[in-house]
TrEMBL record, chains A, B:
InterPro entries: ACOT8-like_C, Acyl-CoA_hotdog, HotDog_dom_sf, Sec_Metab_Biosynth-Assoc, TesB_ACOT8-like_N. This is Thioesterase family protein. It comes from the Bacteria. The lineage of its organism: Bacteria, Bacillati, Actinomycetota, Actinomycetes, Micrococcales. Residues 133-268 form the Acyl-CoA thioesterase-like C-terminal domain. Residues 22-111 form the Acyl-CoA thioesterase-like N-terminal HotDog domain. PANTHER family: CHROMOSOME 23, WHOLE GENOME SHOTGUN SEQUENCE, THIOESTERASE DOMAIN-CONTAINING PROTEIN. Gene3D superfamilies: Acyl-CoA thioesterase, double hotdog domain.
Length: 274, 274
């Protein structure tokens, strides 16, 4: 059983599903939001397919309500609409804290059959030409002081394009772009729900604009466009607008065949050294 | 009272707010989704401010469950989190049909104070250089047979960049881009909630790739980044990936000072002539 499968293990409960968050997947003091989103997408897919609905996440929009910690997590999907080609659902994610049930985030999810949406490709966006993984900078070279040198980072083999790594050495480019390769450290395959985790796995793009400290996600919407082929995934982060400490972070993921398999936008809050 | 203010008029009800949809704002047989989103954002902002929360929509993520028609619409916001700088809410939108309450869409909304997020602008995306409105193609030149030659279209003064208008003459460029100017026909100012309406006001970008017929929105996420200045708004639609009849449509809106004031992505379903 891969680390990833273990992290996304679900048990049926009265109201939906229960999982267990391990601080192997923490960043700083909070659990990685991407892991929670993958877990929520998986739980929603199970509830949907159990009711005869669709099983692949197509869109996933979440608002984050409170930071989650290690331990039990509860996932309660509700089907809002069962259509011929798509199922629409909502999922509530919470943790027990001192006997109370505290909501961590809520998401709206569209599910379908990704096999239906593979062809024909009428337009797509090609992966940027970057050096191969063996010529990129491994995350194991990151300075130990870096916030993201955490449990979560150790789950991944990340290779950053040397052209977009200046921020890690105290020289952010000011461009607001990060490019690189990513795969799980044990080389386990990523499934469609796991792409939500990948979309949020790089350090915040605001680091390339000089932001300091934690960059909490306000809202995240991810789209899965195809089942990823095994192997390295290529990830690019960009931003369109950074103002008053609020920015959008856009992510794109291509698989080892060069197919665009997922993209996302999140609204996040960042502090900038003045 | 402007047409826009009248369309967005809300009355307090037991569970939230009630509005009235007029087929002046219909496209084909359904109401325009953007109008519903603006109405829902406005209702959510009222519920939020009544509880001491924030009043400007920052993010708005909706899943569409059934097409809405003219008549009464019910908007029921629920506050999920009240923070110092942001309020997070959910809003349920429904219509009465034969005595039953039928849900039209559900959205997750983040609200804040846009005045806080105006400065400093550390990065932004400039509006494309297009001809001024008087040198662009007015929507009144659209062939009467066009689907969007509807009540909704008559609410707007739209001027399309001649370089991206080939699709309207049966010659889609295949690029997947539309650019142009837009303002309300009575030149009423657009408020932040109204930007959601603007983001969804152009014909579907898939028309420029040869799609035919209606292009239903599956999921829509819009972000309002600043209060728009009065005057013309510039709108650009693009797409990153079109496969198997599913596409993302990305919109950006700049105000008359050239500031990026809103952007969005939606997942939509399109049919292509083979």
């Amino acid at each position: 059983m891969s680390e990833y499968s273990r992290a996304l293990h679900l048990r049926a409960s009265d109201d939906g599903w229960t999982g267990e968050l391990h601080d192997d997947w923490a960043i700083g003091e909070a659990m990685n939001g991407g892991l929670l989103m993958s877990l929520a997408a998986r739980a929603t897919a199970r509830t949907s397919t159990a009711a005869g609905g669709h099983g692949d996440p197509l869109s996933f929009s979440a608002v984050f309500l409170s930071p989650s910690g290690p331990g039990e997590v509860r996932l309660e999907p509700t089907i809002l609409r069962s259509g011929r080609s798509m199922t629409t659902a909502e999922v509530r994610v919470s943790q027990p804290v001192d006997g109370a049930d505290v909501e961590r985030f809520r998401a709206l999810v569209t599910l379908g059959d990704l096999g239906r949406y593979a062809d024909p490709v009428l337009k797509t966006t090609a992966a940027p030409a970057i050096p191969p993984p063996e010529e990129c900078v491994p995350s194991s070279d990151a300075p130990p002081s870096m916030m993201m040198n955490s449990g979560f980072l150790k789950r991944w083999d990340v290779r950053m394009d040397p052209a977009t790594i200046g921020w890690a050495l105290g020289r952010p480019s000011g461009t607001g772009e990060m490019r690189g390769w990513i795969r799980l450290i044990d080389e386990a395959d990523i499934d469609p729900a796991g792409l939500l985790l990948v979309l949020d796995a790089f350090p915040p793009v605001s680091f390339d604009l000089g932001s300091v400290g934690w960059v909490p996600t306000v809202e995240f919407t991810g789209y899965v466009r195809a089942v990823p082929a095994p192997g390295w995934l290529q990830l690019r982060l960009t931003t369109e607008h950074v103002a008053g400490g609020l920015l959008n972070e856009d992510a794109q993921v291509w698989d080892s065949t060069g197919a665009l398999v997922a993209h996302s936008r999140q609204l996040a809050s960042a502090r900038f050294a003045s």
